[in-house]
Amino acid sequence: MKIKEIGEFGLIDRLLKGISRGKESRGLFIGPGDDAFAAVLPPRSLLVGTKDLLVEGVHFKRSWASPEKIGYKSMAVNLSDLAAMGAVKPLFALVGIALPSSAEVKFVEGLYSGMRRAASKYGFAIAGGDTVSSKEGVVISITMLGSAKASGLVRRGGARPGDLIIATGTFGDSGAGLWLLSKGIKPLKPEEKYLIEKHLAPHPLFSEAAALSKYATSLIDSSDGLDKSVNFIAKGSGAGARIDIEKIPLSRQLLKVSAARKNLSPVNQALTGAEEYELVATVPPDKLKALKSLVRVTVIGRITKGEKVEYYYNGRQYGFSQKGFEHFK
Amino acid sequence: MKIKEIGEFGLIDRLLKGISRGKESRGLFIGPGDDAFAAVLPPRSLLVGTKDLLVEGVHFKRSWASPEKIGYKSMAVNLSDLAAMGAVKPLFALVGIALPSSAEVKFVEGLYSGMRRAASKYGFAIAGGDTVSSKEGVVISITMLGSAKASGLVRRGGARPGDLIIATGTFGDSGAGLWLLSKGIKPLKPEEKYLIEKHLAPHPLFSEAAALSKYATSLIDSSDGLDKSVNFIAKGSGAGARIDIEKIPLSRQLLKVSAARKNLSPVNQALTGAEEYELVATVPPDKLKALKSLVRVTVIGRITKGEKVEYYYNGRQYGFSQKGFEHFK
Fold it and tell me: Which terminus of chain A is more exposed, N or C, with fewer CB under 10 A?
């Protein structure tokens, strides 16, 4: 069944039924279906909010993932932005979808099903939204709102020279997964499926971020790629940075796949592969031990005086031209 | 200069400069430029939030209005959704824009300039956003957040049989303005310019809504057209409604233009013209006098038992087929 058969209000009725039945409306004073939602924030807390747009053909392809996965990821990438602020609790999401009237009702219901799964897993409510027609292609716009204590928030710009640069998890997996998807390789080996799954189903790292918030001087997620994250921290902090490339954690799956495929550079993917959703942070050296008792992190470099971000590979400077993904370029 | 010449981060730098210089960052604990914004809500208040998408070719055409006007209207339509909840104070907006890389930097700066004008006029801060590339066409996604006391909020669904249906302002102007724009009529007479301006630059009615919140049993804006608003109130309240068409206020400009143009029906525009942004509410008859001392409203009908929305024209039933704008149809 096409959306044009049931129209905007028929579609909204269907989507609202799915939401009001679930646990996803918890915490709302006024939920979806009115002109706006209304909700109570936890006492003595700040409102924290972020918004990401996902555009068909730019951020996702309908042929690469089920609507359910696309919906889930739309929420996950926004959740990661909340996590990148420190000890934040997700509370409410607003869902905007523009889509052609030729789209299947099933597709939209699939998107919502993935969004509801994320809501259920991370404990937030779908508070409202807007569903409109597009001329061509799907655009998903999510706003994610949460709460935090001021003391639990960590900005991008608080790093000081001498601070260690640390990272959660491995890098390059999501970029390699995207590379595999774009090449259309089939059949896929298990390690290739792993990389693709890392690209399609990122995990927002809330508990890691909460632990980091106790000692980190700066914090960001690696959604624009590790190199961009380090540059944002350096620029925001008015400092420079040195990254030791050989210290960047790489997964055995990435190493195995890149060994078999000549054009897939693990270092390049680790530095510039976007949509990674690991956390990158800085911490004073004397706090590292205490931090490591709370969360698994790897030291990959340090903050320097000056303004340059420099890369070293086994002690030798690495002439890295920063060519990660950037919209419009 | 095209956006692709400066790229995503060059564009963001420019837009952030415009924001941080203005008064638009007030009230923010952490403002635009980090992974998320953080802000304090007024004490003992609820968070109220809404989101509207505006799609090029569906909600606006670049040839019909300056980027500044498009930006301003994007904010205004979201503000109207907040106002439609009662006594609400707008606080923060998140701005998502998807646009082709061939777009002019000037166009985006124009959009932001209009958004900043709305922020300045209505006293909210631009708290963050996301700027990404689209395959084709511009999509603007605004999330508007505000605060309210629970006692100041009025839902769609609280009307009771016997309540009077009241409305602010005149109806049909915005629809007629859109009609004139779509016909491409030039040169325009003053009354035609008035109608087009009503379409391009709506006013969110905060003070009227605050007054209505004292006595109204239900409240909604007329963004989907008067007929849809009345239907939403009736459906949400489990009741019916009777509208006396001859009581619906029409502007002298609409009457003048429709008298001169055969295919422009003022009644049809008043009932189905979307994007009107007047307020429609219900009030118990014994509260009308007190309400009228606070805000100028017109009684256009009443809530009835049953489930039907019926129209009368000078006492005779009016066979109105509900064919207002609906996405996807």
Answer: N
Residue B101 CB neighbour total at 10 angstroms: 16
Contact list, B329 vs chain A (CB under 8 Å): 4, 7-8, 101
CATH class, range B3-151: alpha beta
Residue B123's nearest CA partner among B146, B97, B148 is B146
**Contact state of A329 with B39 under an 8 Å Cβ cutoff:** no
Give the angle subtended at the CA of A40 by the CAs of A35 and A42, to the nearest 5°.
150
Instruction: Please state the rounded mean pLDDT for residues B123-148.
Output: 95
For chain B, what are the domain ranges?
Answer: 3-151, 164-317
Helix (H, G, I), strand (E, B) or coil at A276: coil
Write out the H or E segment, with its range, that includes residue B19: helix B3-21
Average pLDDT, chain A: 94
Q: What is the distance between the alpha carbons of residues B288 and B164, in angstroms, rounded to a whole number?
A: 8
ipTM for the whole complex: 0.94
| CATH topology assigned to domain A3-152 | 60s Ribosomal Protein L30; Chain: A; (3.30.1330)
CATH 3.30.70.600 fits A164-317, yes or no: no
| pLDDT given for residue B322 in this prediction | 65
CA A270 vs. chain centroid, Å, equals 16
Over residues A10-34, the mean pLDDT reads 78
State how far the Cα of A28 lies from the Cα of A26, in Å rounded to an integer: 6
Q: List chain A residues with CB under 8 Å of B155.
A: 30, 34
Restricting to B residues 63-122, those with a Cβ less than 8 Å away from any Cβ of A are 81-82, 84-85, 88, 92, 94-98, 101
